[in-house]
């Protein structure tokens, strides 16, 4: 599970950088559209950003197994999760019941 957590963080990190690279590339291309930037400067920047994006995408794909492992929860873990949710709902109902009783007592004491 520790391996999965580490892989999940790496997946998120590389995914973030892939999107960031796409954002930087689109901003650079938009600026290049409105402001003249010589090809000597713009082409290396574009190639570097494209390489950056491709590396991030490949690493994202490499660590995508963490998502698959996360989706396939063991059956006992799923049962525990359902029990926890049921217990939480039960506690919420008890809390509402106690609040209603306190409210009724306050009304009775005011009269």
List segments where confidence is low: pLDDT < 50 over at least 5 consecutive residues.
Answer: none
Integer tally of domains: 2
Class inferred from helices and paired strands: mainly alpha
Counting DSSP H or I runs of 4 or more residues, the number of helices is 4
Rg measurement, Å = 27 Å
SSE string: HHHH
Q: How helical, in percent, are the residues?
A: over 70%
What number is the mean pLDDT?
88
* Largest beta-sheet details: none
Distance between the termini: 60 Å
Shape: elongated
Question: How many strands?
Answer: 0
The proportion of residues in beta strands is under 5%
Task: Give the arrangement of secondary structure elements.
Layout: H1 2-34, H2 39-62, H3 65-71, H4 75-110
Helix pairs in contact: 1-2, 1-3
């Amino acid at each position: 599970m520790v391996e999965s957590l580490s892989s999940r963080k790496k997946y998120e990190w590389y995914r973030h950088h892939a999107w960031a690279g796409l954002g930087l590339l689109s901003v650079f291309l938009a600026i290049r559209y409105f402001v003249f930037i010589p090809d000597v400067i713009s082409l290396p920047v574009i190639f570097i950003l494209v390489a950056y994006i491709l590396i991030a995408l490949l690493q994202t794909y490499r660590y995508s197994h963490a998502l698959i492992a996360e989706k396939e929860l063991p059956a006992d873990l799923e049962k525990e999760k359902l029990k926890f949710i049921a217990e939480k709902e039960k506690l919420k109902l008890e809390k509402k019941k106690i609040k209603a009783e306190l409210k009724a007592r306050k009304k009775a004491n005011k009269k």
